[in-house]
């Protein structure tokens, strides 16, 4: 492999591992919230709720005074 291909491969793997960690982390947060609600005899939010929260945060319009 040449140097640019190696650097590109390292950058690609870094991005993929970071995205995987983000997705797994949000999924585990959803499971944690669901489990906490179950222990308190509540229904709780759906497991996908953290993903919905992130989407809402990214779509939200910034208001500058």
Itemize the secondary structure elements and their pairings:
Blueprint: H1 3-39, H2 49-59
Describe the structure in your own words.
This protein is mostly helical and 65 residues long. The chain has one domain. The protein is 74% helix and 0% strand. It is flat and about 60 Å long.
Summarize the structure.
The protein contains two helices and no strands. By secondary structure, the protein is mainly α. It has one domain (3-59).
> What portion of residues belong to β-strands?
under 5%
* Total DSSP helices: 2
- DSSP strand count: 0
Based on the structure, what is the oligomeric state of the protein chains? single chain
The secondary structure category is mainly alpha
Uncertain regions spanning at least 5 consecutive residues: none
Q: What is the terminal separation in angstroms? A: 52 Å
- Cα gyration radius (Å): 18 Å
Number of domains: 1
Describe the sheet with the most strands.
none
Apparent shape: flat
- N-to-C SSE series? HH
Fraction of residues in H or I helices: over 70%
Mean pLDDT: 94
